[in-house]
Structures are given as structure tokens and as C-alpha cells.
Amino acid sequence: MVANQRKKRVKTAHLIKQTEAMNFYTSIFKDSQITNIVRYGANEAGPEGTVMQATFTLKGQEFMCIDSFVKHPFTFTPSISNFVTCSSEEELDNLYEKLNEGGQALMPLNNYGFSKKFGWVNDRFGVSWQLNLPL
Q1: What is the CATH number assigned to the segment(s) 13-66?
Q2: Residue among 126, 87, 92 at smallest CA distance from 109
Q3: Which residues, including other chains, have CB under 8 Å from residue 73's CB and lie 6 or more apart?
Q4: Which letter does DSSP use for residue 64 in this model?
Q5: What is the CATH number of domain 82-133?
């Protein structure tokens, strides 16, 4: 391993109604903010005012999203999910409750033996979240 190796930040593209989702996520996660938004202008590829590209952070992790005006024959799948390590049971319970509103619980909050408490949910935007409180 190389000393001083840089930690890579993963950018995840979410092809959803991203403005609504981005505002929701940054409102429920601590240490989160919208860092940049670029919108389509008149006579550009996307509908004017929709998001060409936006970046935001959740708990220090950077994400990227777009408004997709193209109709796709696919949706999200829980085979790719965002894994969040929580610092308290209160934080985990709060995130699980808010992300599960209008979504679907894949694994209810419980102690499954590999952590103090864990839950897995698809939120109302179809994005999968694994929430963990480590041992």
C-alpha cells in the first residue's frame, strides 16, 4: 500500500427527479449540502431549467445527479445501494424512518449479528440504502 494514498470519492449518478431527491437527502443527513447545480438553458439538449448536473454531499460523501429527460426501460435495483455507517441508534432510526416513508423495507431494523443494528430500505425515489450501526 502506498503511503499518503488518497481516499477516492465516488460519484453516483441518480437518474431520477433529482432536485426533489437531492433536497430531501440533504435535509435528513447530517453534514450534508448541495455544492453545485448546472441547469439546461434555452435551446440546449434538455428542457430549460432542468438539471444538467448537480453535486451534493451526504455525511461528507460526494454524489452527482442529473434530471433525465430520456425515458429509460429500467429502474433502480437494490443490487447497488448506498451504505451508511451511523454514529448512534437515534441517527439510524431517524434515517430509516424517513427513507422508508413511501418506500419499501428490504430488511427491517434489527440486530442481524454483524452489527448492533442494521436496516435496508428502498426509498420513494427507488434508491437503495443500507443503514448500519457498527459493533
Answers
A1: 3.30.720.100
A2: 92
A3: none
A4: E
A5: 3.30.720.110
